[in-house]
Amino acid sequence: MTFIIPQEKLRQFSNEVLIKVGVPKGHAEVVTDQLVLANLRGVDSHGIIRLPFYVSGIVRGEINPNPNVKVVKDGGPYALIDGDNGIGQPVALKATEIAVGKAKGFGVSFVGIKNLKHIGMLGYYVMKIVDNGMVGFVSANASPNIAPLGCKKPITGTNPIAIGFPTKDRPPIILDMAMSVVARGKILVAAHKGEKIPEGWAMNKEGLMTTDPKEAIEGILLPFGGYKGFGLAVAVDILCGVVLGGGYSLKMRRGMFYSQGGVFIGAVDINSFRPYNEYIEEITEYINLVKSTPTAPGFEVLMPGEPEHRTYLNRVERGIPLDDETLKELKELSIKYGVEFPTN
Amino acid sequence: MTFIIPQEKLRQFSNEVLIKVGVPKGHAEVVTDQLVLANLRGVDSHGIIRLPFYVSGIVRGEINPNPNVKVVKDGGPYALIDGDNGIGQPVALKATEIAVGKAKGFGVSFVGIKNLKHIGMLGYYVMKIVDNGMVGFVSANASPNIAPLGCKKPITGTNPIAIGFPTKDRPPIILDMAMSVVARGKILVAAHKGEKIPEGWAMNKEGLMTTDPKEAIEGILLPFGGYKGFGLAVAVDILCGVVLGGGYSLKMRRGMFYSQGGVFIGAVDINSFRPYNEYIEEITEYINLVKSTPTAPGFEVLMPGEPEHRTYLNRVERGIPLDDETLKELKELSIKYGVEFPTN
User: Fold this and answer.
1) What's the mean pLDDT in B195-204?
2) Which of A33, A166, B77, B311 is most buried (CB neighbours < 10 A)?
């Protein structure tokens, strides 16, 4: 039987554990908010499953729990932020707020972050930008685990990108995707559940296809869409790692579930290009038209973010399911840090 | 035997035909430059094969051969340009120059274009930005021909994106890709050659898979990487079509090989984030490291744009091959407009 936990109890547990290892309350709440939102939206790969990795990174001294975020370059519509090797979520949220403020002032903005740890689900930050009536872009590179077929070593991270657009009376349009066929976290989830993964998701460390999630975690993820997905992963690696100076994938240690290179955040105030009301009218018309596409029986056209929003509505009401392995790891944290683990 | 034509002769022919149908010399040279560069880089789908469509669009009064390009919004780092329903290449080149100028002044820039026709290979404009030591982004939406599996009508265009980065002593890194498994033009090329297309490229108009390029042209292209490619195509459609107001895919007439919705051009001056020399050092190191990845026999890691650059070097020297159908269409233009068709 799957253990199901109400979001509020999971929040409280996550906050208390983070505070115990030295994360200030305000920062802990941001980390928790991102993790729980990921679980609520069904993006379990970037949810509470990451908490044990973050905690381990902090206690090993590899993640700064209380970063002093600095703006190191500021030039009107752009800025570069140094994250002080901090736990990623509060750093990225601060940078997101700066991007929104700059887009309000300059119409568009482009904010880079370097020297920070894992920021979690990119859609979290995109949604904050979208809440301000803006278009949001977020991208980040990470330690290597992707290569094209035939490579014996991984080259880039899953290097996700997320793009979001505001809507009215509809879930916001949020595209949030990794450049692998699946996010590495989905393979983690399969490993936790003891399930095999489909052919085409990953190679083992010899560069051969595998369906064993444990081999895949030690091995190499395949990019989605062949050279196109790989090309996008390389572009993100160069933008975040080389242009912003965050360090490219091959410079990072593998297997760190809390590593991150650079992060790019873009915001576009829609009013720069057309009146917001006019935009809202047309985006509503657009969604209605796309969703009314005739389909074969059993098919339905979903907008980006719509499946996640359905899961969100369901899990807000019924709670968040935890797989056995995650439950075990959280209970270990509970014992280790003397934080009561909630009953469901 | 394939007809092979030296680039200079193809340029002269294309310029003269365009001038005959009313395109001013300066504009004609930009259109030709884009078409020939596409052929030289092996992107034949966006090369001279399009000339007959452009000519037909102009003579039907659907493309303005001599647009009066206007900046309709200008807010520092951003601008919105009205292309006066013009032939796309000179409009987009002008907008690219504006984007470069703004990025020089403001560090980053974001320029939109609406009300213009087909701009051709996006990499053309990205390369102009890259030539200025900047990161370039270009994206555009077009008339609908993509839908996810099971749809009986297309929803978005192939809605390509291109991203480029400067290098030293190496071909520039240019990623230029459509959101379909293959560019629609590749199916055109297959149809011209009388070849079948692989399974998975496209559906017929009933929403069923097809390997017949003619059925595919009337039918629906499949997005690359399933919902990920479709999600990106939707994001481009909304950004260029709704946010910039260029008109989204479903608002455009199908089968127009010279239609375009909106265009987004972004430029990032690398000096905004780190000294250019430092960037060049690290990108060189990056390319060397990526290209030295150990591979299985017969595999080689190529950077985005590298295959195109190899074809470029080859075709600059040996000339551009034309398939029989394209040759026939160009000869028809030759007769119709009294422009001598060059011998090879």
Assistant:
1) 92
2) B77
Residue A186: predicted pLDDT: 80
Q: What is the pLDDT of residue B161?
A: 97
B244 contacts in A (CB within 8 Å)? 273-274
pLDDT tens readout for residues B172-191? 999 999 999 987 778 887 88
Please state whether A42 falls in left (phi above 0), alpha (psi between -120 and 50) or beta: left
Chain B residues within 8 A of A153 when measuring between CB atoms: 293-294
Residue bearing tokens 């090993």: A60
Residue A316: both structure tokens together: 């807000």
C-alpha distances (whole Å) from B99 to each of B9, B78, B94 are: 32, 8, 9
d(CA B191, CA A4): 55
Q: Evaluate if residue A24 carries a pLDDT over 90.
A: yes
Dihedral sign from CA coordinates of B229, B230, B231, B234: positive
Give the distance from residue A134's alpha carbon to the nearest chain B alpha carbon, in angstroms. 10
pTM of the model: 0.96
Which of A73, A234, A304 lies closest to B272 in CB terms? A73
Q: Which residue has the tokens 């993006």?
A: A43
Among all residues of chain A, which has the CA nearest to that of B163? A235
Residue B170 predicted with pLDDT over 70:
yes
- CA-to-CA distance for B125 and B134, rounded, in angstroms? 12
Q: Dump pLDDT digits (tens) for A253-300.
A: 877 788 999 999 999 999 999 999 999 999 999 999 999 999 988 889
Tens of pLDDT along B292-332? 999 988 889 999 999 999 999 999 999 999 999 899 999 99
| Chain A residues lying within 8 Å of B301, measured CB to CB | 147-148, 151, 155
Query: Are A145 and A257 spatial neighbours (Cβ–Cβ below 8 Å)?
Result: no
Write out pLDDT tens, residues B79-116.
Answer: 999 999 999 999 999 999 999 999 999 999 999 999 99
Please say if the pLDDT value at position B344 is more than 70: no
Distance from CA of A250 to the nearest CA of B (A): 8
Interface contacts A/B by beta carbons within 8 Å: 216
Q: Residue B205: what are its φ and ψ, rounded to 5°?
A: -75, -5
Q: How far apart are the CA of A298 and the nearest CA of chain B, in angstroms? A: 9
C-alpha–C-alpha distance, residues B238 and B139, integer Å = 11
Cross-chain residue pair A76–B149, CB shorter than 8 Å:
no
Q: ipTM score of the complex?
A: 0.95
Nearest residue to A140 (alpha-carbon basis) of A109, A125, A119, A124: A119
| Domains (range + CATH), chain B | 1-66+305-344 (1.10.1530.10), 69-180+223-292 (3.30.1370.60)
For residues B54 and B224, give the distance between their C-alpha atoms in angstroms, rounded to a whole number.
28
Note whether B76 contacts A173, CB cutoff 8 Å. Answer: no
> Is B192 a residue whose pLDDT tops 90?
no
Residues 6+ apart with CB under 8 A from B64: B84, B85, B86, B87, B117
Model pLDDT, residue A344 = 64
Task: Using CB atoms, pick whichever of A77, A148, A278 lies closest to residue B107.
Answer: A77
- Contact at CB, A279 and B243, closer than 8 angstroms: yes
Is residue B284 within 8 A of residue B168, CB to CB? The reply is yes
Provide, as residue numbers in chain B, all residues whose Cβ is less than 8 Å from the Cβ of A207: 295-296
